[in-house]
From TrEMBL, chain A:
It is found in: Cell membrane. The lineage of its organism: Bacteria, Bacillati, Bacillota, Clostridia, Halanaerobiales. Gene3D superfamilies: MetI-like. It comes from the Bacteria. GO terms for cellular component: plasma membrane. This is NitT/TauT family transport system permease protein. It comes from Halanaerobium congolense.
UniProtKB/TrEMBL annotation, chain B:
Residues 4-236 form the ABC transporter domain. GO terms for molecular function: ATP binding; ATP hydrolysis activity. This is NitT/TauT family transport system ATP-binding protein. PANTHER family: ALIPHATIC SULFONATES IMPORT ATP-BINDING PROTEIN SSUB, TAURINE IMPORT ATP-BINDING PROTEIN-RELATED. It comes from Halanaerobium congolense. PROSITE patterns: ABC_TRANSPORTER_1, ABC_TRANSPORTER_2. InterPro entries: AAA+_ATPase (IPR003593), ABC_transporter-like_ATP-bd (IPR003439), ABC_transporter-like_CS (IPR017871), ABC_transporter_ATP-bind (IPR050166), P-loop_NTPase (IPR027417). The lineage of its organism: Bacteria, Bacillati, Bacillota, Clostridia, Halanaerobiales.
Length: 252, 263
């Protein structure tokens, strides 16, 4: 709560500077809207449900793509951690893929799946998968050997060892992978929607541009940022803290 | 009756320079049922390696270990091991940790829970059954680890320097508890330590290991009943004897390293 005061002051300060710049009248209103205009667009957008529909549509794609990338990433991660040959061959490839911004795949996706749902989900999957692969394989490789030894002397078989010991022991890394994957999927989704049409938030951003409505553009940018911040801060960071605490990895 | 029979056992590790390092050489040892036996020796004498071989976690290079009439080749819950790091599963509560081995044994759920609870009571941690390991002290964690091993009802409890990371006070308390558990359950315990006083206080028999190659140097029998008084002259005498033996071994080890550096 103590931190709330400086935060509020900071936001008020930004709004004040914004309002000040607006009143200098350097740019026309439609190119540089006032905070009030953005506020009205935001309220109107929620009132006529445009934003609600857009956010729902975006989240639907995100959840589908994100789930696929988690599943895919986990499976690949397990394979890489289990087989040296796979690590030596696919490992470097994954690192290279991870450094490719996922929007780069869009032209390919559009040709393969044509405009629409599938192309965007494809891009989201490619955005989210690689971080999950890397974190899953690191997590599984770094399971404390003594935990595995302890389980073995208690008589576990290989399947039990994987599901009941190795996988849960890797959870701290898996959570980090899930968090990064989410962030990258979200970015990929917005990029995909901007170009690949559909009816999500990204597409509303494009309408704003086409109609010369900067107020709408800024409102959507704020929405994208807020959603990203809120999910990361209230969903993933919370989960991460709980896990790190329970696994005894939190130094605090 | 002999429970465990170690026969002509050798263990070599391949070193980087392709030379074979003799970790254990020609080990012959019989361990009786209900015996509390300790392995003691300088670091690198192979005492922990031998324990790992008994657990079936690593294979011997030659020779064999028989448990009753069964050849030991793999880990199994007839020989459960307790480690220096308690090795509890941090995502499970105390009682869930204790239940881990029972679930593998496919014991009826209700029965298993009651067993786990009783075992926790035996190590005086029943009130902490729903705590997570990170909420426990080092000594408490080790007690949970012992409970988790004993609840499986193994033939042998293998302990690899289980109290090595604890402070002296906690260690003394756990000695007391372990002896009581050992007397109540009549388990066979193989206990690896580098603490001479600990070995003398707890064991029926102490096997002193030498290093380079790792081998059995001498064996001490102690028939003084538990609980033992530290000041007991027989114990003090044995303690001093072992100390001298180990000093000799460590000195030899030092000369060996010196020779290696010199050449």
């Amino acid at each position: 709560m103590k931190k709330l005061l400086p935060k509020t002051i900071f936001i008020l300060l930004i709004l004040a500077v914004w309002q000040f710049l607006f009143q200098l009248n350097i740019w026309p209103d439609f190119l540089f809207p006032s905070p009030r205009m953005v506020m009205i667009t935001l309220i109107e957008g929620f009132k006529d449900r445009t934003f609600i529909f857009a956010i729902t549509a975006s989240f639907k794609r995100l959840l589908i793509g994100y789930s696929i990338s988690l599943l895919f990433g986990l499976m690949l991660g397990v394979l890489i951690a289990s087989f040296q040959l796979i690590e030596d061959t696919i490992g470097p490839f994954i690192l290279a893929l991870q450094s490719v911004p996922s929007v780069v795949w869009l032209p390919l996706a559009l040709l393969w799946f044509s405009m629409g749902e599938k192309a965007i989900i494809f891009v989201v999957v490619l955005g989210g998968t690689w971080n999950m692969v890397i974190n899953a394989s690191t997590g599984i490789k770094n399971v404390q050997p003594v935990l595995i030894k302890a389980a073995k002397t208690m008589g576990v078989n290989k399947i039990h060892l994987f599901w009941k010991v190795i996988l849960p022991a890797a959870v701290p890394h898996l959570i980090t992978g899930m968090r990064l994957s989410w962030a990258f999927s979200w970015r990929a989704l917005m990029a995909g929607e901007l170009i690949g049409s559909g009816d999500g938030l990204g597409q509303i951003l494009m309408w704003g541009r086409d109609m010369g409505n900067m107020s709408l553009v800024i409102t959507v940018i704020l929405l994208i940022g807020s959603i990203g911040y809120l999910t990361d801060n209230f969903l993933f960071k919370k989960a991460e803290t709980i896990v790190l605490n329970r696994w005894g990895l939190n130094s605090k | 009756m002999n429970l465990l029979n170690i026969k002509d056992l050798n263990k070599n590790f391949k070193q980087e320079n392709e030379n074979q390092l003799e970790v254990l050489k020609n080990i012959n040892l019989k361990i009786k049922e209900k015996e509390f036996i300790s392995f003691i020796g300088p670091s690198g004498c192979g005492k922990s390696t031998l324990l790992n071989i008994l657990a079936g976690l690593i294979p011997a290079s030659s020779g064999q270990v028989m448990l009753k009439n069964k050849l030991i080749q793999n880990p199994g819950n007839d020989r459960v091991m307790v480690f220096q790091e308690a090795a509890l599963f941090p995502w499970l509560t105390v009682i869930e940790n204790v239940l881990f081995g029972l679930k593998i044994k496919n014991i009826d759920k209700k029965k298993a829970y009651q067993k786990a609870l009783d075992q926790l009571e035996a190590v005086q941690l029943k009130n902490f059954k729903d705590s997570y390991p990170h909420q426990l002290s080092g000594g408490m964690k080790q007690r949970v680890a012992i409970a988790r091993a004993l609840v499986i009802d193994p033939e042998i409890l293998l302990m690899d320097e289980p109290f090595g990371a604890l402070d002296e006070q906690t260690r003394l308390m756990l000695h007391h508890q372990l002896i009581k558990l050992w007397q109540d359950t009549e388990k066979t315990i193989v206990f690896v330590t580098h603490n001479i006083r600990e070995a003398v206080k707890l064991s029926d028999r102490i096997i002193v290991f030498g290093s380079n190659p790792g081998r059995i140097v001498e064996e001490f029998k102690i028939d003084i009943p538990q609980p033992r008084d530290r000041e007991n002259p027989t114990l003090v005498r044995i303690e001093n004897k072992i100390l001298k033996l180990l000093e000799k071994e460590i000195k030899k080890q030092g000369e060996n390293t010196y020779e290696k550096i010199a050449t």
